[in-house]
Design goal:
The complex is a heterotrimer. Chain A is an all-alpha fold. Chain A has 14 helices and no strands. Chain A has one domain (about 1-260). Chain A is about 75% helix and about 0% strand. Chain A is globular, with a radius of gyration of 19 Å. The mean pLDDT of chain A is about 85. Chain B is α/β, with parallel strands linked by helices. Chain B has two domains: about 45-245, Rossmann fold; about 250-315, BMC (bacterial microcompartment) domain (Alpha-Beta Plaits). In chain B, about 35% of the residues lie in helices and about 25% in strands. Chain B has a six-stranded mixed β-sheet with strand order 5-6-7-3-8-9, with helices on both faces. In chain B, strand 11 (about 275-280) and strand 12 (about 285-290) form a beta hairpin. In chain B, helix 6 runs parallel beside helix 7. Chain C contains ten helices and no strands. The mean pLDDT of chain C is about 90. Classes of the chains: A mainly alpha, B alpha/beta, C mainly alpha. Chains in contact: A-C, B-C. The interface of B and C includes residues 63, 70 and 99 of B.
Chain lengths: ~260, ~325, ~270
């Protein structure tokens, strides 16, 4: 478990250096809190106009909304390093990671743990807790969330790792990958069955955000996710998160191999 | 053309405090300190002069340029340029001046040079005929013809500086401020820019005020230098006046055929009437002497009679050394 | 005036260079628009005719919002930020023009270029792309009629001026904090919500409607879009324009005073 200790080292160094700017961190947290809070205001406004959405109520929607934001903010905090990767690849500074006797993935993970996005986490968690207190699901529901939240965070991390790995081939960072991250969050804010079939299929079978957020929350609410599918399927589907993360690591490795063989 | 009399400018700067809590406190109660950038500065400049304006960082050079270009209002003192008070009626005044800040381009990065020129034509409302004439003149003088249609981002630093010079001349100003025009340029480009500045001054009859850190610029260009230190004018005159007014030593450089002979020479230095050894490297020996106390002919005669050497030369101290002396002696730094 | 137009044109031309970034950004916009439209469409499914804006009008509203996204004053002018950062801004103070209008022209040119680059392909997608993808019911609707379209065009021009006047406030604020991160985050939150970019303003709760009507931000996209789909009849165009131009005047005066203060702070930097 040397890797875990090393990761902890990296992270605490990063947090320590950010704490030099406590004041600016606090302001930015309040800033992101407001920016993301307006999104929930939009959800609230629509429900207050229309009453319900395909049978879903506002507290139920709050669970979807809060869950996806919390999961994404966790992933986002850990994987900032992958966001700036294209700069490193372009400038050739990625080489210094290859010089160290530690896995490159771990180093990029550890290169930055950002506190600046704490606003999204606070807001997402707050909305989720509000919805939860309104609905009071059973203990099995709490267990599902305990399983699904880290899985969803792993899934988002996987997406961010893949978009980082892609830059080993493309050099430029791919704006279109934002569709998977921010677009995925956007999609996951509402229950997946409100969308057209092709879109829900995309986020179930291709990038399985639905499996780690929509299905488990349906299980929490004892509601069938799609016609003919029993609610308890959502107890199992979050396993897709770690699986996807694993696939992302494989893609990352082959990206690094491509980089060190071509030297871009 | 320029009359500056007793200009004083003091900045009030809020003290920066560290830490979150003290920065909250500073929102309510701030502590200030005053920085005097210019302290009763006076000088006058005649039409057609090329002035080197020098001084260390923070000496007040850019404050002076800002005041003379109408951006900044001094606390006290008077200043007239070409009949204008720069900071009054700024818009009318700035039509008569051109400014180039070295390393900062006024050209549009992604557009061809000619686009930036056309924009300046509109900004200064230059008559079409006058614009055509002055564009031809600067294109010819600065040989810009080859890259007028090139986007600025593709130009070399030296080419860009030439275009920036041209851009500041399009509206035919009578006065040109050049703030560090050769900074960052390679030796060839520096040489070219100096040549252009001289031509702008001589053929276009533009009065030039040149601020710089590069003493080679000053030696190559300026007929007159103004040295600023600590907000005051420490020296105003030509380079030759600078040389005579600052009591300075000369360097005597001797080359010996071998290091052994050079070492032998330095060993007998005591007899050399008070010339000091500066350094000895390989077969080359450098000595400093004060020509007032030790006339060069006496020193040279003494050496030629007693030692065999392969070459001999006497050097003036470089200008920066003279300026450093001025700071030390006149400003007590 | 010639000077102003010349700067607008140059800035427009300069900003057209960033076609690549604009096209890349379009993917995200199309996607976001699709998501939002499907959500609204689902909300409208059990609607009983009491909604203050129709399904088709809402869908058109969202598509227009994506097309004119770049007009919204939720970011500063990067060229001005860069000039403040490296000191090139000094040149603006030695020109025989007002510094405010120089910056204003630059920002207006940049914003109109960004809108031109994005709006045309986005509208084309919203018309034809949606039909090709088999979702004609979610495509953008044509303008209600020629008169409404004319009213839309007029108020859209005013919206461009209003957006620029508000952007100028952010631009000037960068004199104090060059990074501009804090200000921009707050301003963008307010602008995004109250302009109608999160959800169409008519769908906001009843108790917010008076506030929304008075705020300047509905003049940015909401009012023009509602003119387009005749949600606001063209005969009320004068009120829309009046609202827009009163706020334009407020931001112009405010921004100019703000810049005068900023200019003082600016020249102090670097003795």
């Amino acid at each position: 478990m040397n890797g875990a200790r090393l990761y902890w080292r990296f992270i605490s160094a990063s947090v320590k250096s950010q704490m030099q700017y406590r004041w600016s961190i606090l302001l930015q947290t309040i800033g992101t809190l407001l920016v993301t809070a307006i999104e929930f205001f939009g959800v609230y406004a629509l429900f207050s106009r229309f009453g319900s959405l395909k049978g879903w109520t506002l507290p139920e929607a709050a669970l979807f909304y809060g869950f996806i934001n919390t999961a994404f903010s966790l992933a986002d905090a850990c994987t900032r390093g992958f966001d700036t990767l294209s700069t490193h690849v372009r400038m050739g500074t990625f080489d210094r990671y290859l010089l160290r006797p530690v896995s490159t993935g771990l180093q990029v993970f550890g290169s930055e743990f950002t506190l600046r996005r704490a606003g999204r986490f606070i807001q997402g968690a707050g909305v989720f807790v509000w919805g939860w207190l309104q609905l009071r699901p059973d203990t099995a529901g709490a267990a599902v969330i305990a399983f699904a939240l880290p899985s969803a965070a792993a899934l988002f991390s996987g997406i961010i790792i893949i978009s980082g790995a892609v830059t080993f081939w493309t050099v430029e960072s791919m704006e279109a990958m934002n569709i998977l991250t921010y677009g995925g969050v956007q999609t996951g804010m509402y229950p997946l069955d409100v969308y057209r079939k092709w879109l829900s299929c995309f986020f179930i079978f291709f990038v399985p955000i639905g499996l780690v957020s929509y299905f488990p929350i349906c299980a929490v609410l004892h509601r069938s996710p799609f016609n003919g599918i029993p609610f308890w399927v959502g107890y199992i589907t979050p396993a897709a998160g770690p699986l996807f993360f694993f696939v992302a690591l494989i893609i990352w490795r082959s990206g690094v191999r491509h980089y060190s063989s071509t030297g871009t | 053309m320029i009359e500056v009399h007793d200009i004083t400018k003091t900045y009030t700067v809020a003290k920066k405090t560290e830490g979150a809590f003290s920065s909250i406190a500073s929102l309510f109660r701030r502590t200030y300190h005053h920085v005097t950038a210019l302290d009763r500065v006076s000088f006058s400049i005649k039409e057609g002069e090329l002035i080197g304006y020098i001084g260390p960082n923070g000496a007040g050079k850019s404050t002076t340029v800002k005041i003379l270009s109408g951006i900044l209002v001094p606390d006290s003192g008077t200043c007239t340029v070409d009949g204008f008070v720069p900071w009054k009626d700024r818009k009318a005044y700035v039509r008569h001046i051109g400014v180039v800040f070295g390393q900062k381009t006024q050209l549009w990065w992604d557009l061809p040079v000619s686009d930036s020129f056309a924009l300046l034509r509109d900004i200064y409302a230059i008559e079409p005929g006058a614009y055509k004439r002055s564009l031809e003149a600067v294109t010819e003088l600065l040989s810009l013809g080859a890259f007028l249609d090139t986007p600025v981002r593709h130009l070399s630093l030296g080419q860009r500086m030439r275009c920036d010079l041209a851009a500041s001349l399009l509206h035919s100003p009578r006065l040109l401020f050049l703030d560090e025009p050769t900074i960052g340029l390679d030796a060839v480009a520096k040489f070219a820019v100096r040549d252009f500045v001289r031509q702008i001054n001589e053929t276009m009859k533009v009065t030039v005020i040149l601020t710089t850190h590069d003493m080679d610029d000053i030696e190559a260009l300026a007929g007159r230098i103004l040295i600023l230190g600590d907000g005051r004018v420490a020296f105003d005159g030509s380079i030759s006046t600078l040389r005579t007014s600052v009591p300075a030593h000369r360097y005597l450089v001797l080359d010996f055929p071998s290091k052994a002979e050079a070492d032998h020479f330095t060993g007998t230095m005591k007899n050399l009437h008070g010339a000091d050894l500066v350094d000895s490297e390989g077969g080359r020996v450098r000595m400093a002497f004060d020509p007032q106390l030790l006339p060069p002919q006496v020193l040279v005669k003494d050496i030629t009679e007693n030692h065999a050497f392969s070459d001999i030369s006497i050097e003036h101290p470089p200008v920066e050394e003279l300026i450093a002396r001025i700071y030390r002696e006149r400003l007590g730094q | 005036m010639i000077c102003f137009i010349s700067v607008v044109l140059r800035s427009f031309k300069n900003s057209l260079q960033y076609r690549g970034a604009a096209i890349a950004g379009m993917f995200t916009q199309v996607f976001w628009g699709l998501i939002m439209i499907m959500v609204l469409d689902a909300f409208f499914m059990n609607e009983t005719g009491t909604a203050p804006i129709s399904r088709v009008q809402s869908i058109t509203y969202i598509w227009l919002g994506q097309a004119f996204l770049s007009l919204l004053p939720w970011s500063y002018d990067r060229s001005i930020q860069a000039m403040l950062y490296d000191g090139r801004i000094a040149y603006d103070f030695i020109r025989p023009c007002s510094v405010y209008w120089l910056w204003f022209a630059r920002t207006l040119g940049w914003r109109t270029a960004a809108v031109t680059l994005r709006s045309v392909p986005l509208v084309l997608f919203a018309v034809f792309g949606m039909r090709l993808l088999g979702m004609p019911e979610l495509a953008i609707a044509p303008p209600a009629n020629a008169v409404q379209f004319l009213a839309f065009t007029l108020s859209m021009f005013s919206a461009a001026v209003l957006g620029t006047a508000i952007t100028m406030m952010i631009n000037v604020s960068m004199v104090w904090t060059v990074s501009g991160v804090g200000t921009v985050a707050l301003v963008s939150a307010v602008v995004t919500l109250f302009s109608g970019m999160v959800i169409p303003l008519p769908l906001f709760p009843e108790w917010t409607q008076t506030l929304i009507t008075l705020l300047p931000f509905r003049g940015l996209v909401d009012a023009p879009f509602r003119l387009y789909s005749a949600h606001i009849p063209a005969k009320y165009l004068t009120y829309t324009l009046l609202h827009q131009w009163i706020w334009i005047a407020v931001f112009l005066l405010w921004g100019k005073a703000f810049l005068r203060k900023g200019a003082k702070a600016l020249v102090v930097q670097g003795g």
